[in-house]
Specification:
mainly alpha; 66 residues
Length: 66
């Protein structure tokens, strides 16, 4: 039997989208604020922070109720 190995890597959708937005901003194709250009990264970071905050709250509540 042969073993199948999978190798993942490369850029994610948000990385590609951010790269496209930055290139468009630098070439003056779009005239957006840098907040909008970097919004895919900021939204991902906010989602990650919110997830960690919810997990921390659940852990604290579980420890208090135990």
């Amino acid at each position: 039997m042969s073993e199948t190995t999978y190798k993942s890597g490369g850029l994610s959708f948000t990385s590609i989208l951010t790269l496209i937005f930055v290139l468009c901003k630098l070439t003056h194709y779009i005239d957006w604020s840098w907040w909008w250009v970097l919004s895919p990264v900021l939204i991902g970071a906010a989602f990650g922070f919110l997830t960690l905050a919810i997990i921390a709250i659940i852990v604290v509540v579980a420890a208090v109720l135990k």
